[in-house]
Write a structure and sequence with these properties.
The complex is a heterodimer of chains A (293) and B (376). Chain A is mostly helical and 293 residues long. Helix content of chain A is 68%, strand content 3%. Chain A has one domain: ABC transporter involved in vitamin B12 uptake, BtuC (Orthogonal Bundle), CATH 1.10.3470. In chain A, helix 2 (35-51) packs across helix 8 (188-210). Classes of the chains: A mainly alpha (293), B alpha/beta (376).
Chain lengths: 293, 376
C-alpha cells in the first residue's frame, strides 16, 4: 500500500508536468523542453517567499502567478519569433533549442539566488515535518495525499476547460487549423499565449506540491521533463485522463520495480513504456481515428 | 633628460628590489564547484578551508605571495584532465590541490605525476589514490582527505559488534559501487554478512521502496553510501521505521541536517577526522562561521581543506620560488604542522603520502545538533 501511494504521488507530479506539455502541443505542436525546470523554479519561488515571511497560501499564489508570466514570456520570446522560419526545415525545430535554452537560464538563475546546494522546502499544508495520515492502516504524508487529490482535481478542471469552456473550444479550433480559426474570428495569438500560460501554471502547481516531498535542487528539472514526456506518450498526447492514468501507471511501476530490483529500478519502467509505445504508438488512451490536422 | 634617466633607473631598481623581496607563486586549485549538489558541497567547503589557510599565510608575514588559480572541474573527468594540463602548461603552477571526485583525481593524477608537479588530492576519498603512485620514485601525488577504507573499517568494526542485522544502500555510480564492494569484502573478513543490499540511481527522488525492504528485512543498521545523503531519512516517518544510519563522512554536513531535520539525523554515525571537543577545532569553527557565514556548512571538509592549504603554502614559503621538485620535497618532509583536523604534525614520509592514516580516522555521531566523537 505504501509503495502504491508513493508511486501515485510521484505519478501525479509527472502527470501535472505532462499535462502542460499536452496543452502546449495540442495548440501549437510545440512543447516546452524546460517544463521540468519551470516546475523547479516554482518550488524555489515558494521556498524563497516562505523564507521572506510570506504566508504559505500567498506564496503559493504569487509563485503560480509568476509561472504564468514565465509562460507568457516563453511564448513571446522562444516560440512566436520562430514562426516566421517554420517553412525552413531546420527553423521549424528551433523551438527545441530556444525552450531548452530558457531552461538553462532558469537553472542558472536559481543557482545564482539560492546556490548550487540541495534545499529543504518545509511543508505547506501541515504545521510540522512528516505529518502523517493513516488510511486503511497505511501511513503516508499529508503532502502526498494532497498531491494526488490536486492532480485529479486539475484533470477534472482541465477536461471542463477543454470540452466546455469558450477558451477550450478556441484551443480545439486552433489545434485543428489555425487559418480556419482566424477565419472564424478567433485570435490565434491569444489562444497560443493562453496555452503556454496554462502549461506553465501547471508546472507551477507541480513545483509547489513537489517541494516538500523531495529535495529541491537547481538541476532536478530535466529528469521530470523526460519522465513527463514518457507519461504523455504512454497516456496519449491527446487525452488528459490518459495522461493522468499514464502518470499513475508510470509512478507505480517505478516504485515496484525499485522494490523488486533496486539496482536497475529505473530501467524497467522505461522498458515497459518502450513496449507500450511499440504496441500502441499513439498512446494507450488515445483515439484510434487518424489525426486530421 | 637627466632627471628622466634618474627616475627610470630608480623605478627599475625599485621593481627589482620588490620582486626579490616578495616572490609570487601561483597555486592551482581544481575543485568540483558545479554539478550534483553533494559534489558542490564538498568542493565549496574544501575551498573555503584553503582560502582561510591563505588568509592566515598572508597574515603570518610570508615572504612569498601566493595567488590561487581556481578552476571548476564540474565533476567531469575529461574536464579535470584538461584543467590539469592548463594549470601545468598555461598557468605554469608548481603545485596543485584538488578535487572532489575520485574518478577525476585518478584521471588527472598521472598528468601531474608525468609533469613532475606535486598534487595534494582532496577531498577525494577512493582508497587507492596515493597507493598507486607511491611505488614511483619519487611520487608527486599526496592527499589530505578521508580515506574510504579507513572510515569503512571503523564503521564495520563498530557495527558488527553492536548490530545483528546490517543493511547497505548505495548509489549505482562508480563511487557507490566501489564503496559497496569494500563494505561487502570488509564484512566478510569480519565473519559476518549483510542482511540486505539495495541500490539507487544517482538522480532518484524517493527511496521508499528500498526503505520498505530494509524494514521488512529487520535491518537495525543501515550503511548509507548514496551521494544524496538525505534520501534515506525522508521515508522513515511514513514507513514507521527508525534504524540507526551510518555512512560516508558526507553525513556530517550541516546541510544534511538542515534538510532531514535535527530529530531525524540524531544518532547518525559517520567517518570523521575533526574532533570538535578540541579547543583548536572550536576556534577554527568559530573563525569559519565568521568568515563565511551561512555558506560554511561542513567543518571536517573545511578543516582538511585548511590543512591541505597550510601544507602547500608552507612548502612554497620554505622553497621561496616556483620550483616543483623542491616544493614536492618540502611537502614530503613537512613537520611541525599545526593541523586543525586529525592530520599529524608530520603528515608524510617517502612511503606514506596520506595526511590521515587509519589511527587518525574515528567515528563521529550527530548529538544535539552537532557531530561529536562516538564514545562506545
Amino acid at each position: 500500500m505504501q509503495l502504491t501511494i508513493s508511486g501515485l504521488t510521484m505519478g501525479s507530479i509527472y502527470a501535472l508536468v505532462a499535462m502542460g506539455l499536452y496543452i502546449a502541443h495540442l495548440t501549437t505542436h510545440r512543447v516546452n523542453f524546460g517544463q521540468g525546470d519551470y516546475m523547479m523554479v516554482a518550488g524555489f519561488l515558494v521556498l524563497g517567499l516562505g523564507r521572506l515571511g510570506l504566508h504559505a497560501i500567498l506564496s503559493v499564489l504569487v509563485s503560480i502567478c509568476m509561472l504564468g508570466l514565465m509562460g507568457y514570456f516563453l511564448e513571446r520570446v522562444a516560440i512566436r519569433p520562430l514562426d516566421r522560419f517554420k517553412r525552413i526545415s531546420v527553423g521549424a525545430y528551433g523551438w527545441i533549442l530556444t525552450t531548452a535554452g530558457l531552461a538553462l537560464i532558469a537553472q542558472n538563475s536559481v543557482e545564482l539566488v539560492w546556490g548550487k546546494s540541495a534545499q529543504y522546502s518545509p511543508p505547506l499544508f501541515s504545521s510540522k515535518r512528516d505529518q502523517m495520515v493513516t488510511i486503511f492502516g497505511a501511513r503516508f504524508l499529508l503532502e502526498e495525499l494532497i498531491v494526488i487529490i490536486v492532480a485529479m482535481t486539475v484533470v477534472a478542471c482541465f477536461l471542463w476547460l477543454i470540452k466546455k469552456s469558450r477558451w477550450g473550444k478556441a484551443i480545439q479550433v486552433v489545434a485543428f487549423n489555425p487559418e480556419t480559426a482566424e477565419l472564424l474570428g478567433i485570435n490565434t495569438k491569444s489562444v497560443k499565449i493562453f496555452a503556454f500560460v496554462v502549461a506553465s501554471v501547471l508546472a507551477g502547481v507541480a513545483g509547489v506540491l513537489i517541494g516538500p516531498i523531495v529535495t529541491l535542487q537547481p538541476h532536478m528539472g530535466l529528469v521530470f521533463t523526460i519522465k513527463a514526456l514518457i507519461v504523455a506518450t504512454v497516456g496519449g498526447f491527446s487525452n488528459p485522463v490518459g495522461i493522468l492514468i499514464g502518470g499513475f501507471l508510470f509512478g507505480i511501476c517505478e516504485a515496484y520495480s525499485n522494490y523488486f530490483d533496486s539496482q536497475f529500478g529505473d530501467l524497467y519502467p522505461l522498458l515497459i513504456a518502450l513496449g507500450m509505445v511499440a504496441l500502441r504508438p499513439s498512446g494507450i488512451f488515445s483515439e484510434r481515428s487518424d489525426d486530421v490536422r | 633628460m637627466n632627471m628622466l634617466k634618474r627616475y627610470l633607473t630608480f623605478a627599475a631598481c625599485s621593481m627589482v628590489i620588490s620582486s626579490a623581496s616578495f616572490a609570487q607563486v601561483k597555486v592551482g586549485v581544481i575543485q568540483g564547484l558545479s554539478g550534483p549538489p553533494a559534489i558542490v558541497d564538498f568542493g565549496e567547503s574544501y575551498l573555503q578551508g584553503i582560502r582561510l589557510a591563505l588568509k592566515d599565510h598572508e597574515a603570518s608575514g610570508a615572504k612569498v605571495k601566493i595567488e590561487l588559480q581556481v578552476y571548476d572541474d564540474e565533476a567531469n573527468p575529461q574536464r579535470a584532465v584538461a584543467l590539469a594540463q592548463r594549470l601545468i602548461q598555461s598557468d605554469k603552477v608548481p603545485v596543485a590541490i584538488g578535487t572532489v571526485s575520485s574518478g577525476n583525481v585518478l584521471a588527472m593524477a598521472p598528468v601531474f605525476q608525468k609533469a613532475n608537479i606535486p598534487l595534494v588530492a582532496g577531498p577525494s576519498i577512493a582508497t587507492q589514490i596515493t597507493a598507486q603512485f607511491i611505488g614511483e620514485k619519487p611520487s608527486f601525488i599526496f592527499r589530505c582527505s578521508m580515506v574510504e577504507k579507513f572510515q569503512i573499517d571503523g564503521m564495520l568494526d563498530w557495527g558488527v559488534k553492536k548490530f545483528k542485522r546490517i543493511g547497505l544502500i548505495h548509489s549505482t555510480t562508480g563511487y557507490g559501487n566501489f564503496a559497496a564492494k569494500e563494505i561487502q569484502d570488509g564484512i566478510k573478513t569480519r565473519g559476518s554478512s549483510l542482511a540486505l543490499v539495495e541500490a539507487a540511481a544517482p538522480g532518484v527522488n524517493d527511496l521508499t521502496p528500498q526503505m520498505v525492504k530494509m524494514r521488512d528485512a529487520g535491518v537495525e543498521l543501515i550503511l548509507n553510501f548514496h551521494e544524496s545523503f538525505e534520501l534515506v531519512y525522508r521515508p522513515m516517518a511514513k514507513v514507521n521505521y527508525r534504524p540507526v544510519v551510518a555512512g560516508n563522512w558526507g553525513l556530517s554536513s550541516m546541510k544534511v541536517m538542515e534538510i532531514v531535520g535535527r530529530e531525524a539525523i540524531e544518532g547518525t554515525v559517520m567517518g570523521q577526522a575533526l574532533d570538535m571537543s578540541q579547543p583548536r577545532s572550536k576556534t577554527f569553527d568559530e573563525r569559519m562561521r565568521k568568515e563565511f557565514g551561512g555558506a560554511y556548512r561542513w567543518p571536517v571538509l573545511a578543516a582538511l581543506g585548511y590543512d591541505a592549504g597550510q601544507i602547500v603554502f608552507k612548502a612554497v614559503e620554505r622553497v621561496g620560488k616556483a620550483d616543483p621538485i623542491a616544493i614536492r620535497n618540502a611537502i614530503e618532509s613537512m613537520d611541525s604542522l599545526q593541523a586543525v583536523s586529525a592530520t599529524p604534525a608530520k603528515p608524510f614520509s617517502p612511503s606514506d603520502h596520506e595526511c590521515l592514516d587509519k589511527e587518525h580516522v574515528f567515528l563521529g555521531v550527530w548529538k544535539g545538533g552537532a557531530v561529536v566523537k562516538l564514545m562506545d
